[in-house]
Amino acid sequence: MTTTASPAAPAPTPRTVLVTGGSRGIGRGIAERMAASGHRVAATYRSGGVPEGVLGVQADVTDGEQVEAAFARVEAELGPVEVLVANAGITRDTLLMRMTDEDWDAVLATNLTGAFRLARRAARPMVRARFGRLVFISSVVGQLGSAGQVNYAASKSGLVGLARSVARELGSRGITANVVAPGFVETDMTAELGEETVQKYAAQIPLGRLGAVDDVAAAVEFLASDAAGYVTGALLPVDGGLGMGH
Ligand code: NDP
């Protein structure tokens, strides 16, 4: 009997990766997975630390000087950023009629303006290198809408327009820009919801379970990989089917 060996997958090209919000939740999971795959990984944090084997850089994405300093440090220690994962995000949930300007501004400043600032800073060295991967962490609610999350949902759908415009501007330079839209993932952000609410969500998910951090990290790893070189401007849902149909 003869066996046909399938060709071995090529080893991933090690890249310099910067993940924002790498102290907890999804960002931490992305940093861990990318480091385990052999990439040079830096992660920003405000409080707390980052996983072992990852360069921790303290930076608040709402502060332009801190973002600049973070890039300078990563460039000095690991080289120019080739993969940017704009993950840092917050919620300030309340109904429209109760939402203050401050609730709106805080969420937009972190989730959307922060991502813009990071992408702008990352772009120039990527253009020079004629290679870059920009991955923006959005949310299923950016497309579905969500009662009580006018600010958050607007910031998350804003990322789609941001990424697709960057994809058009920089595609000819070998730079891709894609969006990952997680559904309901078990992290600190969702831990505040009661068991009843969680069960209600789970019942609407075709795959019948909440997402794990690594479900999202795997999608990010794919979009950052050589194999995804012809994927740009995509919105990749990682939501167990929760948002399908849009
Ligand atoms: P967590 O609340 O668990 O973690 C948020 C991370 O973002 C922390 O590392 C936090 O740092 C960091 N962060 C927040 N504000 C800033 C800031 N101004 N500057 C720098 N870092 C900041 O959230 P998740 O892991 O759940 O969420 C990660 C991303 O995924 C977010 O963009 C979120 O919107 C998105 N998402 C999450 C879903 C979920 O179900 N969990 C679903 C869909 C999308 P620090 O520890 O210092 O506060």
From TrEMBL:
Q: Where is the Ketoreductase domain?
A: 15-188
Gene3D superfamilies assigned to the protein according to its UniProt record, in alphabetical order: NAD(P)-binding Rossmann-like Domain
List the Pfam families. adh_short_C2
Source organism superkingdom = Bacteria
Chain positions covered by the region annotation Disordered: 1-23
Question: Cross-referenced InterPro entries, in alphabetical order?
Answer: KR_dom (IPR057326), NAD(P)-bd_dom_sf (IPR036291), Sc_DH/Rdtase_CS (IPR020904), SDR (IPR050259), SDR_fam (IPR002347)
PANTHER family in the record? 3-OXOACYL-(ACYL-CARRIER-PROTEIN) REDUCTASE, 3-OXOACYL-[ACYL-CARRIER-PROTEIN] REDUCTASE FABG
Record family assignment = Belongs to the short-chain dehydrogenases/reductases (SDR) family.
Q: What is this protein called?
A: 3-oxoacyl-(Acyl-carrier-protein) reductase
> Organism source for this protein?
Microlunatus capsulatus
